[in-house]
Write a structure and sequence with these properties.
The protein is of the alpha/beta class and about 400 residues long. It is built from eleven helices and 17 strands. A six-stranded mixed sheet has the order 6-5-4-1-13-14. It has a six-stranded mixed sheet with strand order 7-8-9-10-12-11, with helices on one face. It has a three-stranded parallel sheet with strand order 15-16-17.
Length: about 400
Amino acid sequence: MRLLHTSDWHLGRSFHRVGLLDAQAAFLDHLVATVHEHEVDAVLVAGDVYDRAVPPLPAVGLFDTALHRLAEAGVPTVMISGNHDSARRLGVGAGLIGRAGIHLRTDPAGIGTPVVLTDAHGDVAVYGLPYLEPALVREQLGAAKAGHEAVLAAAMDRVRADLAARPPGTRSVVLAHAFVAGGAASDSERDITVGGVAAVPTGVFDGVDYVALGHLHGSQTLTPRVRYSGSPLAYSFSETDHRKTMWLIDLGPNDGPDAPDGAVTRALIGAERLDCPVPRPLARIRGHLDDLLADPALAPHEDSWVEATLTDPVRPAEPMARLAERFPHTLHLVFDPERTEDTPGASYASRLRDRTDQQIAEDFVAHVRGGASLDGAERAVLYGAFDDVRVDTAEREGDR
C-alpha cells in the first residue's frame, strides 16, 4: 500500500505579512497531481491543517476544494487536528465527510477506532491521534500523570489494544501531532511544551509499522518507522535551509515480528522524499550595508525573500529602502552592530533569543529582587502559571 504523508499546511498563514494563499493552492495542486502520478492509495495529513482556530474564509475555501478533489480521485484521506486547529471546527461533519473517503480524526474518544484500508496483502489499520493537550484529556484517556508523554502513552495503549484484537498480519499506521525526541524545531512552530519539558520519546510508538508525525516544520527521520513530513512551505527564515517535501511510504506485507514481543514488524519497504513547489527561495544575508549592496556573490539572492542582518557600527540611513533597490523582496531587517570593548552589551532582544518564556520570567523575578534565584517551590508555581495559561488558551480556542 502506498501512502503519502504530509502535515502542517497552516492554511491562511502569511510570511512576514506576505500572503501565501496562492502558494498554498499551488502546493495542494501538486499534492493532487502527486496522488495521480505515483498511484497513491491513501493520503495522511498529520495536523495543523489551518494556522489558527478560526481561519479566514479564503483558507476554508481552499481546504474545501482540496477535499473535493481528493474525494473525486477516490483516494482515502486521513487527517488529524493539530495544536493550531480548532478540533471542534475541523471535525464538524466528520461522519458525513467520512462517507466520501475523507476521514477527520479530531476527537480523542476515537483514538482506538482506526480507518481500515485494504490491499492485496490484507488490512491496514490507520489510527489518528489528534493533538492531545494533557490537562484536557488526561482523565478521559486514563493517563497515569499529566504531561505529553503520559497522554500519548495512554493513547497508544488504546491503539495497541485494538490492533491486538485484529487478524494476524494486520498492518498499522499512526498519525500523531507532537514534539518527539530527536526532532529539530524551527522558529515557526508554536511551543507545546512548558518551560522546556522534555519531548516525547520515540518508544511511545513501539508496535506499529509507521508513524506519520506532524508539528515540526522540517522533514525528519527519527527512526525508519517514525518520521516528520515537515511543512510544505517555509513559514520562517529559520527554515531557509529546509528542503520542503512529502514522504511517499510503501507498506508491504506483514511477515511477522522481528522481536519476541512483536514490537517491530517488517511491513515498511520504502520511504521516498518528494519535493514540494517553492514559491520563492529564502536567503539570510549578513554584513555592512554597503558590502551587501556591492557583493557580487549575493547576486543569486536578488529574487529571494531576504532576511538581512546589518552589522554596521552605526545604523545606516534608510536601510530598508536601499536594500530593496538590489533585493526587492527583503522582508525582515535585523540590526546586530559589530562591537568593540567600548560598545555596550548585547541588545535586550538578542539576550532573549532562544530562551523559553519560563526562563525569561525566572530571570525577571531574580532581577527585581536583587539577583536572588528562584527555589524549587517558586519554580513550580511559575511552571503551573504558564501551564494554566496554555490550557486556558487551548480551551478558549476549542470553544470558538
